[in-house]
Amino acid sequence: MKSIEKEPDAPIKKEGFTTGFAVFFATLGSAVGLGNIWKFPYLIGANGGGAFLIVYLFCIIFACMPVMVCELFIGRKTRSNAVQAFEKLKVKPFWKSIGFMGIIAAFLIMSFYSCVAGWVYLYIFKAIKGDFAGISAQSAAAQFSKASVGIISPILWQIIVIAVVSAVIIAGVQKGIERVTKTLMPILFILIIICDIRSLTLSGASQGLDFLFRIDFSKLTAQGILVALGLGFFKLSLGMGTMLTYGSYYTDDNNLIGTSAKVAVSDTIVSILAGVAIFPAVFTFGMGPDNGPGLLFMTIPLVFSKIPFGNVLLVAFFFLTAIAATTAMISMMEVPVAYLNESKKIPRKKAVLSVAVIIMLIGILASLSADGASLLGGAKVFGLTFFNLFDFVSSNILMPLGGFLILIVVGWFLSKKDFEYELSNKGSINTKTAADMLYLVIKYVTPVLLIIVFLNTLGIIRLS
Ligand code: PHE
Fold first, then answer.
1. 306 alpha carbon to ligand 1 midpoint, in Å?
2. Burial class for 195, CB neighbours closer than 10 Å (0-12, 13-18, 19+)
3. Which of 119, 136, 400, 462 is deepest in the core (most CB within 10 A)?
4. Does any domain span residue 303?
């Protein structure tokens, strides 16, 4: 009998995105997430509105976009996951630590992210059930602490989120990630515009917009600059291997600089649209713009409960937030999954399941110590709850540090020619001037900026 023999060493054909359209939506799906709708509004609220927005835009242009191009460049050139990429680049083994650090960051982020995403999923059901009809500011706060504090409910919802994300990833890059992001991102956009129109017709609209866009630098602190930088990295999913992994699925003819710019601009627009949906409401109903992480969960139900067809809008709003959270989490989970699958040859399904179990275990720590919950006896590490610690370590340390190392490897250890060749899609488009300028920024400007911000955080220098 003739047996069909498998060649053991035949390279497995790597799956990738099919079109430029798919590349754009998948990348935007990673960027747009809870960062836009949950983090951005409360951070802007806590750091003084418009002035913070300007610093944030500055960070996006001079620190985040260069890192994004570097990650996409490494990913597409090597067509490998975050660890293997550095093996293929033939640089010293040290640089592989960028990949490992990225995997650790991915787990830390997923643990608190899945917790917040769990509250969002729960809020869709609460809204459908009509739980928010006629609520007041106090009962909105009470409902939020009920949702976030118990033991069973938050963990259960967190597990549901992890299961949904796992199912998409198991389906693969094209049938899972590509299909889901291409369908859901346009829906998200339409829903957010509808919410904006409603919010802008509220009586507190001008106060809300004034808060969001008025530039008052006196409210900005040095800490605020670090926060803006961390937010930029978090928003564009940088410094932890996500963009590198997605870059490895990019089509050969994709313009990497163009896609980075389009994604950064679209993502910032979504953040601003989310702010425009939230702040007029905050002022209309007399809540504080600095209500912290619970802002979204306390204000939005309150606002929509007060207006005609509010409940439909409320369901829509939490549904769009759930879309954002899910597509972003898909891209985080893909980092360890791609590594286990490609480097360790673990079948995709098994890789996803193992990653899911680890997230659940660490995620429980985040869930039990989240906003208002003190089930771990208020345990603190370095003065922070687990939830805040995971957030702080990933956004303010690991991601900027990962980004810094990526800039250094591209600017100082890889050849400029390779960089330009890849960005020009092997000579088929003319990107020479843009690539030249970008290279200078990558080599000198952004690393220096990051060092200044770091030294300031450590208290070695004082920015203000
Ligand atoms: N960019 C996502 C957001 O804003 C978060 C994210 C971080 C996604 C890191 C992937 C990797 O919510």
1. 32
2. buried
3. 119
4. yes
- Number of domains present in the structure of the chain: 1
> In testing the pocket of ligand 1, which one of 43, 111, 272, 331 has its CB within 8 Å of the most ligand atoms?
331
**Range(s) of the domain holding residue 191:** 20-457
As for ligand 1, residues whose beta carbon falls within 6 Å of it are: 30-31, 33-36, 109, 234-235, 237, 240, 242, 328, 331-332
Question: Are the CB atoms for 63 and 229 separated by under 8 Å?
Answer: yes
Asked if residue 463 is part of any domain, the answer here is: no
Let me know if residue 4 belongs to a domain: no
In DSSP terms, 384 is beta-bridged to: 381
> Along the 464 residues of the chain, how does pLDDT read in single tens digits?
444 444 444 455 689 999 999 999 999 999 999 999 888 987 887 787 889 999 999 999 999 999 999 999 999 999 999 999 999 999 999 999 999 999 999 999 999 999 999 999 999 999 999 888 888 878 888 888 777 766 788 899 999 999 999 999 999 999 999 999 999 999 989 989 988 998 898 888 899 898 888 888 888 887 888 889 889 999 999 999 999 999 999 999 999 999 999 999 999 999 999 999 888 888 887 776 666 667 788 878 887 777 777 888 889 889 999 999 999 999 999 999 999 999 999 999 999 999 999 999 999 988 888 765 555 556 677 767 888 899 888 988 899 899 999 999 999 999 999 999 999 999 999 999 999 999 999 999 999 999 988 787 677 776 65
CATH number at residue 392: 1.20.1740.10
CA–centroid distance, residue 237 to ligand 1 (Å): 4
Q: Whole-model pTM?
A: 0.92
Amino acid, res. 96: K
Distance CA 277, CA 322 (A): 16
447's tokens: 């690393």
User: Is 14 a domain residue?
Assistant: no
| Closest approach atom of ligand 1 to CA 324 | 12
